[in-house]
């Protein structure tokens, strides 16, 4: 089966490319990135600020069930061309990870399909590799937390 | 058989990840592992079978008992793969697509 989302991460390079084709017209795909209430739905995070323009900024925040902030990220928008591209920085607050540069390119394929390519540039090769492995580490962490919950129930 | 994909299917399940973490500290029997979960024993056995088949766990015969332990080499291999990263984005984009399709029909 052809994978819908592809990751191109060449060895020894400090960038990676994420590509995905959508069964959506490019206008709708782009809208999913600019309408705060839509971003909230699919990113699963609260949008505190989203200024879709050159020199604009954005800030996202996610809280757990108890209202504690577990994730906060922000960035600056460097370029904004409707239905075509967004160039922005992305930084996770209160983490050791350095800011990254993101080039998002939106492309119409047919009337109902579109393609998104994201090139993410990291501060170093090491940081890129670390970020690539993060979801795996988080998966294990989540399992660990779940285990902790189970163990606590036994006590 | 696509072994690489199977390994990621194996670790995609939260119960199986919990089993891996449990066994990571020391080798355990299937019975001892099962007591840590609310799940029925046959379900845990099935999870252990899957983890063993993709070599994340290894079995060791100690007298009459079989102990399960982590296959560190395989775990390391998996950790180096970027498949979980890809899956994270894939899930995210699937959601985006679903949200926008819904948005489109509502209009």
Automatic annotation (TrEMBL), chain A:
Pfam families associated with the record: AHSA1 (PF08327)
SUPFAM superfamilies listed in its UniProt record: Bet v1-like
Highest rank taxon of the organism: Bacteria
Residue ranges occupied by any Activator of Hsp90 ATPase homologue 1/2-like C-terminal domain in the UniProt entry: 23-151
Similarity section: Belongs to the AHA1 family.
Protein name (record): Uncharacterized conserved protein YndB, AHSA1/START domain
Organism: Mucilaginibacter pineti
Automatic annotation (TrEMBL), chain B:
GO molecular function: DNA binding; DNA-binding transcription factor activity
Annotated SUPFAM superfamilies: Winged helix' DNA-binding domain
Keywords noted in UniProt: DNA-binding, Transcription, Transcription regulation
Span of domain HTH arsR-type: 1-90
Keyword Transcription among UniProt keywords: yes
Pfam family, one: HTH_20
CDD domains: HTH_ARSR
InterPro entries from the UniProt entry: ArsR-like_HTH, HTH_ArsR_DNA-bd_dom, HTH_MetalResp_TranReg, WH-like_DNA-bd_sf, WH_DNA-bd_sf
Classification via NCBIfam families: HTH_metalloreg
Name of the protein described by the UniProt record: Transcriptional regulator, ArsR family
């Amino acid at each position: 089966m052809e994978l819908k989302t592809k990751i191109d991460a060449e060895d020894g390079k400090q960038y990676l490319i994420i590509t995905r084709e959508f069964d959506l017209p490019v206008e709708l795909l782009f809208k999913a990135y600019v309408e705060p209430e839509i971003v909230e739905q699919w990113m699963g995070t609260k949008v505190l600020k989203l200024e879709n323009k050159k020199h604009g900024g954005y800030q996202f925040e996610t809280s757990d069930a108890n209202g504690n902030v577990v994730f906060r990220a922000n960035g600056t928008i460097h370029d904004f061309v409707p239905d075509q591209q967004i160039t922005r920085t992305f930084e996770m607050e209160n983490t050791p990870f350095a800011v990254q540069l993101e080039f998002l390119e939106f492309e119409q394929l047919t009337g109902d399909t579109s393609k998104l390519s994201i090139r993410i540039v990291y501060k170093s090769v090491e940081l890129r590799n670390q970020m690539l492995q993060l979801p795996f580490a988080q998966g294990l962490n989540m399992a660990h937390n779940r285990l902790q919950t189970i163990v606590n129930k036994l006590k | 058989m696509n072994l690489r994909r199977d390994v990621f299917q194996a670790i995609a399940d939260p119960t199986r990840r919990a089993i891996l973490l449990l066994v990571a500290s020391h080798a355990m029997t299937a019975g001892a592992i099962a007591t840590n979960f609310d799940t029925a024993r046959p379900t845990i056995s099935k999870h252990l079978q899957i983890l063993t088949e993709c070599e994340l766990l290894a079995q060791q015969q100690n007298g009459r008992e079989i102990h399960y332990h982590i296959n560190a080499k395989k775990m390391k291999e998996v950790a180096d793969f970027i498949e979980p990263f890809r899956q994270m984005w894939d899930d995210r984009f699937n959601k985006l697509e679903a949200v926008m399709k819904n948005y489109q029909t509502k209009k």
